[in-house]
Design brief:
With 93 residues, the chain is mainly alpha-helical. The chain has one domain. The protein contains three helices and no strands. The longest helix is centred in the middle third of the chain and has 29 residues.
């Protein structure tokens, strides 16, 4: 039962990322898809590098207050979800 939850906890977010990586293909002119995909990938990699550092700093500064860290993650998730609703598909024609 325990690793079923772990599987869901891993595969659900990864499945959502598939949509993120297809956005440059759908939204950017064909001649710039490679650059747009590279930019999206770079931003993701930088965030993956900085996130553990910021979490460690926050835990050290707040005497290991994990509640603050988790609330921060939820807030950033909600911000990302809200901004994703602003993405519009360009008009075809």
């Amino acid at each position: 039962m325990g690793h079923r939850r772990a599987d869901i906890g891993f595969f659900v977010p990864v499945r959502g990322l598939a949509g993120l990586f297809t956005l440059p293909i759908l939204l950017v002119p064909k001649g710039h898809v490679g650059s747009a995909f590279g930019f999206v990938n770079t931003v993701g990699q930088v965030a993956a590098f900085i996130s553990p550092l910021l979490v460690g700093y926050t835990l050290n500064a707040t005497q290991s207050n994990f509640k603050l860290v988790f609330h921060g993650f939820v807030g950033l998730f909600l911000l990302g979800a809200a901004t994703s609703f602003k993405i519009r598909q360009p008009a075809i024609g």
